[in-house]
Request: fold
Amino acid sequence: MNEMWLGYCAAGLIGIGLYGLIVNPQPLHKILAFNIIGTGVFLVCAVVARRGAMPGMGGDPVPQALLITAIVVAFAASALAVALLVRLFEVEGRTTLDEDEVPPRTDRHGRGA
Amino acid sequence: MTTSGGLLLVLAVLAPFAAVMAGLVLGGRNAERVALATVGAGLVIAFEIARAVLASGQPMVYLLGGWAPPLGVALRADGLSVAMMLAVGVVIAGVAVYARADFGTPTGMHETRVSLTFWSLLMAAWGALNLVFVSGDVFTLYVALELLTFAGAPLVCLDGRGETLRAALRYLVFALLGSMVYLLGVFLLYGAYGTLDIAMLGERVAASPLTWSAAALMTTGLLAKTALFPVHLWLPPAHAGAPAAASAVLSALVIKGSWFLVVRLWLDVFPGIVTWSAAQWLAGLGVAAIVTGNLVALKQVRLKLLIAYSTVAQVGYLFLMFPLAAGARAAHVDDTAAVTGGMLQAISHATAKAAMFMAAGLIYTTLGHDRVAELRGAGRVLPMTMLAFALAGASLIGLPPSGGFLAKWLLMSAAFSSAQWWWALAMLIGGLLTSIYVFIVVMHALAPADVGWTPKRTVPGYQQGVVLALALCSFLLGAAALLPPDLMRVGRPHTAWVAP
Reply:
């Protein structure tokens, strides 16, 4: 029954993350939303590990190994996205992905913009 | 069981990544030297794998650490993997030669950021693609796809302009969402069947709501990364904004990685549970991509954006093989025509699109702009390049004897033999639309230049030569029909066409 609730939590997290990713135009929000989706997906993996446990063991070790790899990969992905975002702010002084807006003329390096 | 020569598969993946490390450590001009040496070595490895697989007629397998699946991880190269590895090796070699002029370290400087980054990312993308082609389990494929994204996104924004940074970020967001959705499908499959190995999953999967959800999630995630209509919006700014050599890698190769994974899933993991209507929907999206991509390409003012929208359309063709292969299987006949047609379409598009983007790069360097309506004089200054552009265009249109012709011929014959004529109609309309914009570009380029006009810069002859060579690869690929050995068939399940 415990796994059932964890599964619902995972579904909720994925739903919240998807909503945030689609609705919010700010790239930083999108990166955070991606991480929330990721947390939900990893929770699904944890549930899979728990349900696949052999008698007397806490969990199936294979999904746990996958989980660690996936967390590292997702962390690297977030780091790359944030690095791109910081660079975008340095170059343009703003962080929207919308091309229609006119970029601010002042302070091309974005300090304090 | 590890087959003889299986270690070559490990080398094919490791060599490019070793080159990334070595390039970073040695730095400066050495990164380029290491990359060029690795291109040579990697081509030899790819040809050796192809020779061994053709000689034995069996897929090549390597078990990492000697551990057999389901506990261990297997690398496996069947005919489809080998064909893609060869094509990618040839395109990477062409791009590497071309990029020496644009990304060489200038004399008098120890190291420039752009050239060091480019050579590292080129090798990283190659290693990741090889890993996609030889991975035998769905989780290693996830890691390989992520590596491909990490190499592809920075290639978009090599020049560091705000506009390309935005394109790279948007690409990254689509790609990350896609891979997370794919990963959810992987976990669901493991939870249900207790294995990640593609061959074992293929035997175990049963038609159930869970398998359908996993298949839908994994396919959707991969479509976002392949930029199939309607999730193609990130592609044109990303591919058109990058420098020419990077555009060639992104448009010709990187999107093929996630497409190849769809092929793996639909042909090897889920062949029994893919329904007729699901395959029709997938190819229906492909037709929508062909029509919208080509129509929007017609309206483009800039040549690189035109080529990028042409990629959106060509991605559509890649998905026509799925209902045709499924139709053949349902009728208990050989699905080789559909599968080979789809693979040839991928390979001929890879070579043709790389040639086109690099030709556009040479035109940009020579004229100082790439506005389609003002290309006059380009044909006079760059005759070889315009010939290459026209030959690559002929392959995209599907004129004989090009690879695109053979691919469309095979797909059309598969469409008629499985009584799905509407896909043939879509291919004809697509070819017609493609021919219009190829002719528009060539006509403008062949117009005589204004009196007294001189080119901004002259480009080295070897750059023109390598572009023409890649275009010729695509144009003459149709001759592959004359080759006796049927590489694509190696390792394909024979059950479907012996069964009736």
About this structure: Residues 275-500 of chain B form one domain. The beta strands of chain B are 60-63, 74-77. Chain B has a mean pLDDT of 89.
